[in-house]
Amino acid sequence: MTHSTWTVHQGDALTTLRTLPANSVDAVITDPPYNSGAATITARVNDTARGKYVRGDAQHDLPDFPGENRDQRGYLAWMTLVLTECLRTARPGTPLLLFSDYRQVPINSDALQAAGWSWRGIVPWHKPNARPQKGGFRRSCEYVLWATNGPIDAARNPVYLNGLVSGSQPRGRDRLHITQKPLEVMRELVRICAPEGTVLDPFTGSGSTGAAALAEGRSFVGVELSDQYIKIARQRLTHAA
């Protein structure tokens, strides 16, 4: 389905990325399946996304999503291939923003550098409503790894952005995905894309990156595998456009 400002392809991220033209996007901003959220390797590769990331007393019935059962070696190889294809689609100077939890920061930094991106740093995402942890610290942060395709091209987009973003996951009717990111956070992040440029998200989910890109005057190209979530994303982007 294609519109003047957005396109969302249905399919596997790696397979679909290979069909996209080279040097065609101005930012890659994505929240891939973390393949984390469990204390042991057995639980990590056998549990579902709902089992890992949704509390037992949750009041929603959001659908599960695929791609959450790779072990660490498989995840590193897969993410390297995905990010290599993202680099091919990216114009020189294009930024990459990659969401990660604390467990996967090291392996994601390895993957993006192995794929040829220049690693620039980490932007913490502060979650004000994070659940407490008895006997320890509240897990109030996830992380956004920042990289670029070669040198930073500040001439195309001379912005000064905060090195910390803050916002809680949507609740109630606004919650459309198990791991949905706040729209206000995504709108701040997409400003890293050059004005009127194109944002690519190979793991579109419910379309938060796309909705933020459209709200900030950018175009959007997405890829989503799930039948349920691609319908939600397309409806959301149609409304946003």
Automatic annotation (TrEMBL):
Keywords: Methyltransferase, Transferase. It comes from the Bacteria. Residues 25-150, 170-234 form the DNA methylase N-4/N-6 domain. One of its GO terms (biological process) is methylation. GO terms for molecular function: DNA binding; N-methyltransferase activity. The keyword Oxidoreductase does not apply. Signal peptide: none annotated. Its EC number is 2.1.1.-. InterPro entries: DNA_methylase_N4/N6 (IPR002941), DNA_methylase_N6_adenine_CS (IPR002052), RM_Methyltransferase (IPR001091), SAM-dependent_MTases_sf (IPR029063). Pfam families: N6_N4_Mtase (PF01555). Belongs to the N(4)/N(6)-methyltransferase family. This is Methyltransferase.
